[in-house]
Amino acid sequence: MRPMMSPPLLSPFPCPLLRFLRLYHAPRRRNPIAIAAPPPPYSSRRRTPLLLPAAMSSSASTTAPDSVVADPSSLARKVAAIRAAGPAKLQVIADFDGTLTRYWYDGARGQSSHGLLRQGNEEYDAKREALYQHYHPIEICPDVPLPEKAKLMEEWWEKTHGLLIEGGLTYEAIKKSVSDASIAFRDGVVDLFEYLEERDIPVLVFSAGLADIIEEVFRQKLHRSFKNIKVVSNRMVFNEEGRLVAFRGKTIHVLNKNEHALDMAAPVHDNLEDSNGSIDDYSLVKKRTNVLLLGDHIGDLGMSDGLNYENRIAVGFLNANIEKSLKDYSQAFDIVYLNDAPMRGVVGLVAEFCQ
């Protein structure tokens, strides 16, 4: 990963954080501007983008904005409130796949933490793929009522977990799957984690995938641990031979990954053999009532459900289908980063909180 440069000094007027963002000011809660970004070529219309200096751009040859803010005044108010409360009141809640990780990998769609898994048994890999082909259209279908969809998603996850156990998944297979995977963190993720760790700001990584795989991705792709990061996801139980025998706790799927699942969390470190999967007093996390939420789907906004927060800034990563989805994303998120953008702007936002 290319190391980030230190963020520049901020201008006090009119909104300091805008110096970190290469953005369009989209009309307030109206249809935002279509973005011109190769490839494919999108056409910009009506408004002129406010651009960062060239030295801060992710690519000198790119003229399109990296982000869109629909309501700069609202964002500025939230930033001011979080800054006034200080780092001790702040926590970061982040999705994993497509948020902390890149959407594209060597010109193709990168793998997810669930999709990369090969359990060393082609028959069971094929069975899991068949479940995906059956349930995924239900997951993305807007016409299925949420209560019905939630039940079907839990059914899908539990069938998949059953196949992993029945097919004899081992931890060695997880290690090999991650080693062979087309998955990588966004540029700037390490800078973000280090900045947050230095200031004792906790990061909760919520995922409907598998905590053990996510933690292995951290080990192999970042080559270090962070004491402030906790993974809230489905956690496996292995026997002495390293074979999967069970899953711990409640099943976490795409429609229930939120702070109600904190009892599943465990820190990312070298020893994950904690007796109950949790070593922290999560009441302390719940007292951090200012939230920076990072996600790549509108449904990720639900990750803060269960937390009585005072201020929340939601950052969305819109990695593809920009013209189709930008309106909805800009209405749902305070900031929308485009085209698989790096984490540079988020680091700048956190620096603004900690002034």
Automatic annotation (TrEMBL):
Per the record, the domain of life is Eukaryota
Its name, as the record gives it, is 5'-nucleotidase
Q: Which GO terms describe its cellular component?
A: cytoplasm
Q: For this protein, what reaction is catalysed?
A: a ribonucleoside 5'-phosphate + H2O = a ribonucleoside + phosphate
* Family of this protein: Belongs to the pyrimidine 5'-nucleotidase family.
**Keywords, ordered alphabetically:** Hydrolase, Magnesium, Metal-binding, Nucleotide metabolism, Nucleotide-binding
Q: Which GO terms describe its molecular function?
A: 5'-nucleotidase activity; magnesium ion binding; nucleotide binding
* EC number annotated for this UniProt entry: 3.1.3.5
One annotated GO biological process: nucleotide metabolic process
